[in-house]
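Following up on my earlier thread - several people asked me to post the actual chain instead of describing it. Fair enough. Here it is, all 380 residues.
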Amino acid sequence: MKGMLAVVIALTLGTAAGMTAHAAALSLEGVPHYQHVGILVLENESFTSTWGAGSPATYLNSLVPQGAFADQYFADGHVSLDNYVSMTSAQSENALTNTDCAAVNFFQCSQSVGVIGGGANIGDQLDTAGLSWKGYMDSMPSACFHADDSPTAIPPDPYQGDSTTPPAGNYADRHNPFIYYPDIETNNTRCQAHDVPYTDLATNLAANTLPAYFFITPDTCHDGHDAPCAGGEPGGLVSFDAWLQANLPALLSYLSSNDGVVFITADEGSSTDSAGCCTGGPGGGPGFGGRVGLLALGAGVAVGTTTHTSYDHASLLRTTEDATGISTYLNNAGTATAMSDLFAPAADTPETPLTLALPLAGAAALAVALVRRRRRAQTP
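Reply from S.P.:
Thanks for posting it. Predicted structure:
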């Protein structure tokens, strides 16, 4: 009987240990695992203009007490495309992306992004893990829209925003990182499934089909870039904040109810700010894109806190990899630090956690019942 009791307890302990191991797998480097992880990017705004006293982004700043804030978050380069690539693959800038590929055609630009590891990116990681993902691009006229990708196309790229001219208007190719990864852009079926107009977001929220990872780019009138806008709006942070106030509440409500988080930051700081840090810059060293700040909103963030730890776009990629359960890190994310202090710490585990205590209690009751049954069977 003692042997039987030992077996029962051993099996119970094994079950409890398995449950504990599964729970541990739900967090990587102190970053919780989420059902939905998103990034929303504004453009070319310094830390002070976005987050400082007197910022016109009053709605955005009203959200800071509801989230977790990183006040030493830096961009990696000083045009748009290199930073968008860093956020989604942690590649350092190259000689073309650090000029927004202004002097070359779309094909040459995409090929330059594909040089490092074939252009491996967060979309590849998510597909391998069996997770859904989408880039939602404001004012993009159709899925996977971009400039002519033929090798003989004449530069420059005609679709760079700040325009009222159809078909693209204020949509900018350089703010859409996914079309520059060759393994996405050259696979039309894949590209159209994942790189979609922003209007698809409302449809996905209503249908409860928001993907596991999403990336939102407002158009150049509503991301802080243009001021004034080609269509007559004031642009800058005024138009960005109005766009955010009209669009973000529905997303935040969904994320709160469906285990999600969104990170809001800028691609780069002001042109006069060359401050940087960390591992996302040239050669995996410090960047120089300026201080921009980052706000995390959603379930499980350390509400009302500010971290002063230095982070950059490579840190953001590593954090999103962790948050989606991916434990392999691309390019400069491999040496980056995850932004674990943006999240509320897990509750302390008691010496006998409930997941262990309940199975043990059940095992003890079973053992007692077996002993009583054996004794009754042995009674003459």
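The two ends are 19 Å apart (CA to CA). That should answer part of your original question.
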